## 1
Amino acid sequence: MTVPKNKIRILIVDDEAVVRESLGNWFREEGYVVDVAGSGKETLQKLAESSYDIFLLDIKMPGMDGLQLQRRIREIAPDAVIIIMTAYASVETAVEAMKQGAYDYIVKPFDPDQLEHIIRNAVERKQLVAENIRLRERLQEVELFHEIIGQSPAIQRVLEQIRLVAMSDTTVLIRGESGTGKELVARAIHANSPRRYMPIVIVNCGALAEGVIESELFGHEKGAFTGAHYRRKGKFELADGGTLFL
């Protein structure tokens, strides 16, 4: 689905007032929501108050140039689409800007229709990426929860709680009788969390013999006690960055 022009916010940044105002007026007449800035400092001030979909940056500006400004914008709005406006003499700099994440560049003087074509392509690409991410998340959700079977309101509440706690960085207590699926819930939490690319380590504490649990959980160094012939990593260390289910 094509994004309507009046839903696309553009910030035009150029130290030449004639350029930014004429370009701004052209895009406004085409139906876009447009704002302008004459410097990097003014851009950052506007960005602190508003959000934009597209940034049109002049590469050569006094004070903070286009490359420096692009880096600052990326810190604040990592997903922003940045298009560089440049003169022939600074094309190499524009190419460098693309290496640093700019979507494209256009050489002055240019036809606004040509620039609009670049903007439409950028918006459509951004929309496609967002749709692909949403699709992957839905497919992943189906895959991650496939072991937890049930459509009842109670199960749906459990799945919703899994989604909520999975994104938190805190200890989670899972309660339930033996055989009710606590490990399945633990695995689902791990699989939906930012830690999913790190290991999940499962420890059945009830099966550990007395006197072994400390070494099992925390590990030991070679020679730490009689029979410790080698260094052993504990479960906490093995699960570092991931999930430890006890």
Note: Residues 153-245 form a domain with the Rossmann fold fold (CATH 3.40.50.300).
## 2
Amino acid sequence: MSLASEAELQEAYRGDMVAARYMDARFDSELHRLLYDRQVAALQRFITRLRPQKILEIAPGPARLTRHIPPTGLVVCLEYNEGMISEGRPVCGERALWIRGNGFQLPFGQCFDLVYSFRFVRHFHRKDRERLYAASRQVLNPNGYFVMDAVNARVSKPLREAHPEEYLIYDKLYRSDELRRELIDARLEPLEFLPVQKYFRWQYRSQLVLGPRASWANRLVIRALERLPRMDGLEWIVICRRA
């Protein structure tokens, strides 16, 4: 059974070795780098437009996203695992304040204009996701924004059913209407679902066929497909506003 509890996930990401290998282990292929780059670009655009004065990232890991965001004010990174903090703090320098803490029990008042968290909320079952939504909403200013990622059940479920051994950590798989309802129930108004890896079937084939033989061609194909219009993808970047 996939890991999904608070204690299991804390243990899964514990240790200096896990933190040191996090980026290379998860974003080593062009297909995964596309996912990474799309998340960075979406955050950069949103923050540049919104210009929040206080930002909180929950479970930033080794600061894979925070190291790239434009400085518009105070950035707080709340991370439980000490190894991740040791990796992330140096690459952020003075642009971020790092605090060791638990995403379910945020040690802040209502003060943030933006809260975001990637590869975190999705790993928990419904009751724990509700706790995370409530904690995030509690520290958001009125009309503050919450951003996260979510996995599309239509695209991802067949992949996971074919190779369950590759998915040791639980991910909630959503239909878009189900995700929208869950956020509304949490008093978070869904504004945008930005699709990522929009032609995953063909992008994945390119990674398998071209990736080992012609990395430049693989990159060209994967990125060109991503520029084509489509409302669906393997994942979504989800932008919400505090309701």
Note: Residues 6-242 form a domain with the Rossmann fold fold (CATH 3.40.50.150).
## 3
Amino acid sequence: MSETQGTFKNTFEHTAFFSLQGHISTKDISMLFLQISTMLQSHLPLLHIIQICADNAKNTRLKEILQDIAYHLQLGQNLSFGFKKHKNVFGDMSYQMITLGEKSGELKEIFSMLSSHLTKEYKNKNKIKRALFYPILVLLSIMGAFMVLVAFVLPQFLEMFLSMHIELPIYTRILLFMQTFFTDFGLIFMGILLGAGILAQYMYKNSLHFKAKIHAYILHIPLVGAIIKAHFYYQYSFSLYIQLKSATPMDLALALSKDISNLALKAKFESALESVKNGKALSVSLKEQNALDDIALALINAGEQSGNLAQMLEVCSKHFEEIATDKTDMLISLIEPSLSLTMGILLLFLALGIFVPMWDMSAYAFGA
């Protein structure tokens, strides 16, 4: 091994990039891509880079995957071949962008971008987990208490209420209905839910039409849909930027960039590609498909008019990255109060269902 390679090896050996567990986290992958990008900047051979990363990976599964990728590189396969083989670990976006990097000669920038993107994704996931942990714990505790009261406590009061001819309030009647329903039909209900889940999963895997419908529906979920759109718009605009910067013909650049995992958005980009082939401007074609937002379309139009389309697409990608970050922060800020409100409603409903008839019973007893 050369002195330069040895220096990189020693540097990464003493950095705890990878976890000891078999699970490969988003952070693991982000740090891997940062390593690859850094070593590509020093013009090390790609095979040696992957071998160095494999040697220094503390995660057993990641080490095996990198060794497999290195093996296929030795056989003459492209780097993207190895990442496609392990797409379930690295994700569709990583595979598609690495394929793009090979075609455009911009692998170094692609890996740097992926590392930055995955780091933000990892931080956002951690924020969401922290925001969810305590409210969900409390909510589950309340639901557990709710079920115990409905199943065991409420029936004991029922005969007493009825013997005193106390009219049960609507809250208590709803609780009793729930208790009766889950006692008589609980297993059947759970079986139906399980069967529906299995059927939906099967159709999602085997029916492109059903999958496209689900993808389109997800895009209309408040906030979540906006985050997903921004993610794919970022991928699309950054992909176009890299290719046009590398002097890739427009038709080919659009054909490569349209390959995203959301089928609903992919169909829009495919239609835009056909319009461009028929002589329409990219900004017009995307606007006809209601793809991207007004700011991005204005930037693309300005780039077409000035001859700086690649630079404008880079600005678009940063614009959508900021949108994704802002919307994610907004979602996180809404999670805790929403769960707190749900807990409050459950507690109020439980209190009204149990204590209102008890107060009526007390009033009846004193009245008697």
Note: Residues 1-21 have pLDDT under 50 and may be disordered.
